[in-house]
């Protein structure tokens, strides 16, 4: 009986060792899958972040360009308005000078 008990104990130990090895292998596989999945999520997140950053930079550049264009247009309109006002002032001064001259001739 003792030999049978020892044999059974040996078989049980061998089974336990095999089961533990299988468990370890399964755990290693699960850990590796989780590591791969985590790395995939990190890469996807980085890619999404880089795309969003690129879009934001492009939007900022477009807005900056539009703002500069608006500023240039505004400056051009101001310049044109000042030029028109100066031209009108010159014309009015010329009219005033002509009227004065006419008045002086009429008096004189």
How would you describe this structure to a colleague?
With 108 residues, the protein is mostly helical. Helix content is 98%, strand content 0%. It has 1 helix and no strands. It has one helix at residues 2-107.
Distance between the termini: 157 Å
Helix content: over 70%
The biggest sheet, with number of strands, parallel, antiparallel or mixed sense and barrel status, is: none
Overall residue-averaged pLDDT value: 94
What gross morphology would you assign? Answer: rod-shaped
What count of helical segments does DSSP give? 1
Portion in strands: under 5%
Task: Write a concise keyword list for the protein shown above.
rod-shaped; 108 residues; mainly alpha; single chain
